[in-house]
Amino acid sequence: MIVLSPAQARAWEEKSLREGARMKDLMRQAVSGALREIQPLLPARGHALFLVGPGHNGDDAVLLAWEMRELGWEVELLLSRTPGKRVHPDPRVKAKVWKKALVWPAKPEGFLGATGPRLVVDGLLGLGAVPPPRPPETAILNWIARERRPTDLFVALDLPTGLHPSEGHAPGAVFSADITVALGSVKSGCLRDQALPHVGRLHGVPVDFGTPPPKSNADFLLPSGAVRLIRPRPANLHKHSAGIVHLWTGSTTYPGAALLASEGALRSGAGYVRLFTDRPLTTAIPGRLPELLLSPHSEGTAPDLPPFQNQATALVVGPGLPPSEALADFLARLLPNSTVPIVLDAGALDLVASHPEWLETAKAPVILTPHAGELARLLGQKVTERAEAARVWLDRHPHTILVAKGPHTLVASADHPLSHNGSGNPAQATAGTGDVLAGLIGGLLAAGYPPFDAARLAAVWHGLAADLAASGGGPSVLATDLIRHLPAAWRILSGQADWTAA
To answer: 105: cis peptide before it, omega within 30°?
Structure first.
């Protein structure tokens, strides 16, 4: 899904209308998609309050309210301005809707008195508004913030009211959403890290405008778009041609990383996965992962370089490894000698931060997978916006690929637009999930995926598995739960199943 500035998004819609598209049809696409995105997160029915502004964002909210009333929800509309003779673009929404709606400062008594599930949908202001909001919208935002209950679900349509649509800051009152549903395109301000507390989880709804989109320097990879990256597995595939991953992961301090990264690589579809790790860790592994090949070495030492490279089509180094002299010496020798892609994580990243010149010696692609703290250490400076940090990093190291982990994990390459991941949720904020991601990337690289595609596909697959796990586990999801949902997530990505069947 494309990422656009507000001006680009407006121009695209206006061009579509000039070329014959009808507003009601575009709106129906957007609202049907929004309902599809939020419905799995809703209880069977409850009480919904729709905050309605004077523009098309408000019209979207009213049409969604109409759809939800059909599903049995108790619905109230709260308008920020008097409707006058307002006519909705969709003729299914009759004039009486405006007459029955409340107009601020009237209060929705049904919503306030509801004891069951409550939903609040923000349709006050759209991408044409520059914050801070005007007094009526500001008053509504301040009031609903005071009335918010911990169990309420707050949803913003397209972008939260009060958030700057391109810069992502909120200089005044703002709607702090649990979920923002981007309609047609993702507005660039919603992907700024400073916007995350107000955007919440960002979902995307593509809309067919009937005209080509403008050029963009970023995208938002939805699970539905991942099928374009997936390569078919030929009928004559065998274990060697499926890819061979070698990993040096895990230590007595972080023993689980060895298993998690290895299983990520195995679940990627790689034909062989061989783990190089400390000898004491290998005793229990055959019972846990009998498919895994083992090459143990003495604790505190590094693997021998020739066996580590021999026959491998991708390498993973770092998960669960503390920085050490042995690891430093290994990396200094591996990077200039490897002819296959290398994934660096955790302890390997800390050492590269101290020795960035090693990256300039690499002959093969190097994929780095830092979380926020590791990214700051790599750059040697505080990181406030990952997109800006990624551009700084690529200016210094244009031959690497950066996977900046976090909400909507960012994949950055000098040869491609920035790619934000469109799957995932806070359940991924637990120990071990990054190890799984490193293994997945390694496995896709080993299978022959181009490095940028391997990183993007692994991120969206990883995030979708976390979404499936969280749908039945909430905050109790573990990295091992995520792994168990990788096969079902792949079926969705490849178009073999939808969410409900997975």
So the answer is: yes
The domains of the chain are located at: 3-216, 228-233+241-494
Residues 264-300 pLDDT 10s: 999 999 999 999 999 999 988 888 999 999 999 999 9
Question: What gap in Å lies between CA 471 and CA 427, rounded to an integer?
Answer: 10
pLDDT for 501 equals 55
CA angle 222, 227, 230 (to 5 degrees): 125
Give 399-434 pLDDT, tens digit per residue.
Answer: 999 999 999 999 999 999 999 999 999 999 999 999
Q: In sequence order, what are the residues at sequence separation of 6 or more whose Cβ sits closer than 8 angstroms to the Cβ of residue 16? A: 26, 209, 210, 211
Supply the DSSP symbol for 2. B
Residue 178 tokens, joined: 């649990």
DSSP code for 193: G
Which fold does the domain 3-216 belong to in CATH?
Rossmann fold (3.40.50)
Contact 422, 460 (CB under 8 A): yes
How would you write 346-365 as a 3-class SS string? Answer: CHHHHHHHHCHHHHHHCCCC
pLDDT cut 70: percent of the chain above it: 99
Q: Do domains 3-216 and 228-233+241-494 have the same CATH topology?
A: no
pLDDT of residue 325 exceeding 60, the answer is yes
* Separation of alpha carbons 490 and 116, rounded Å: 36
Which residues, in sequence order, are CB contacts of 105 under 8 Å at separation 6+? 139
Taking only Cα atoms into account, the Rg of the chain, rounded to an integer number of angstroms, comes to 25
Neighbour count for residue 132 (Cβ, 10 Å):
16
The confidence score (pLDDT) of residue 502 equals 54
Chain-wide mean pLDDT for the chain? 95
- DSSP secondary structure letters along 303-333: --HHHHHTT-SEEEE-TT----HHHHHHHHH
Q: Domain spanning 228-233+241-494 has what CATH number? A: 3.40.1190.20
